[in-house]
Predict the structure.
Amino acid sequence: MVLDPRQLKPSAACRLLNSTPLGEVIGDRQLYRHRMRAGFRIGDGKTVDLVRYAAATRDFNPLHWDHVTAVEAGLPGTVVHGLLMYAWIVQEAARATGSDVREAKVRFRSALHPGEPATLSAAVDGNTVKLELARDGAILVSGTATVTGTTE
């Protein structure tokens, strides 16, 4: 059976997280409390994007899903996984060129918090793509990707 993490409901995400060798990581009620305490809902209210991503990548760092831990660490709240933002950048390079990405180098400048809108931009120059992920004009992630070929 193939599991599609995009279809997980909060209770299923909790079961998946708790099925690892780490034992119980988070409970349904605890997840709900953290989501409500944070002042926003992660995902569409039926799915939990960051917890799903944590389960899929086995990156259970609580800074990404536990508001209290993130605040105690000096952040204003939970933050989106850096590798998830990297994946968005690489997907944008592939989408903008219609080609496979051979290499991507990025620089993380600032964190993105769940619920904040962000925009991706790509500027294609031959087989090189300049990429930016920004929020309100502030660059969060910048980088370049090399693709196998372009559709120019």
In short: DSSP finds five helices and four strands in the chain. The longest strand covers residues 138-147.
